Amino acid sequence: MTELQAEQGAQALDGPHPQAKTRRNREVLIALAVFVVLALLPAVFSSKLLLDFVIRCAAYGLFATSLNLLVGYTGLISFGHGMFFGLGAYGFGLMMQKTGVPIPVAFAATLTITFVVALIIGAICVRLKEIYFAFVTLAFQMLIHSTILSWVSLTGGDQGLRGGIPRPPFFGIDLSNQLHLYVASCALLVIGLFLMHQIAQSPFGYTLRMIRDNAIRASFIGIDVWRAKLTIFVLAALFASTGGIIMALFVSGAYPEFAYWTISGEGIFINMLGGVTTFLGPMVGAVLLLILNDTVTRLTDYHGLVLGIVILFFAIGLRKGLMDFVVEWYAQRRNSAGERG
């Protein structure tokens, strides 16, 4: 852990300082401003494609940012994080199809199911070393994917949930209306990003950084490493599940691909594109990936080849994500300007 991180962590552990309260209030205002801008976007641009794009960005942005809580902040590389994205989509879809409960109840119930599943899987996985953790999470994801394919009477098998997802209005909100779904997705995105940022900047967030940098030293000073890893594993699962719920509402269904290993691969790719050392890196990566997918698939049938070249460019050329590169370049420029001044 760097000296700056240690100093910030120590300050955070001391208690709520006036500066911390001011910063939190400022972040609340920024979050509200971002939501207002997104909510007013349809009044400026009437394109339905733009609204669809933002909804997809909300789903994948929450998923990728939650993965970065594990990868970037805790040093836990999960190859199976997509299972919670799929669990959110299927859990919510089945809840609405089979029970007909109000949407807020189905949302809360889906997160509760995700919490229980993540707690069980996490209790097993976080005890393992890095490479074993990665592959055991992948094994659990393939188990869930296989269950979805084989339990045809419940999940629809390889055809997915058919018949659409009922979306009865609640509190004057009708999610069958694209505009209402768009605003709700933006609200969930902003709230999710705000909460994850608060986690990352909290004393617990700096504890995660310490574990990432040196888990043995963290345990020596009294930190319960296993409990901290399990906590962030479950929290990340809840945010990923929320992304899955948004996607289920968007497509009015759920498909086995939502829980396949390629979803986890896309999450890692998004983090590579945007960067893992900056909080908004995964969000930027999600936007870039969706733009690439939408553009490349229209121009060529060899979209996999093009995306592979993009991965090589970031992995070998930049050796970091876009936001990591921009932040590092800006810091170097400020330092150079300071030396000249």
UniProtKB/TrEMBL annotation:
GO CC entries: plasma membrane
Transmembrane segments: 28-47, 53-71, 78-97, 103-124, 131-152, 179-200, 230-255, 267-292, 304-322
Entry annotated with the keyword Zinc-finger: no
Keyword vocabulary terms for this entry: Cell membrane, Membrane, Transmembrane, Transmembrane helix
Subcellular location: Cell membrane
UniProt topology in membrane: Multi-pass membrane protein
Pfam annotation, one family: BPD_transp_2
InterPro entries recorded: ABC_transp_permease (IPR001851), LivM-like (IPR043428)
Disordered as annotated region, ranges: 1-20
One MF term in the entry's GO annotations: branched-chain amino acid transmembrane transporter activity
Protein's name according to its UniProt entry: Branched-chain amino acid ABC transporter permease
Species annotation: Bradyrhizobium archetypum
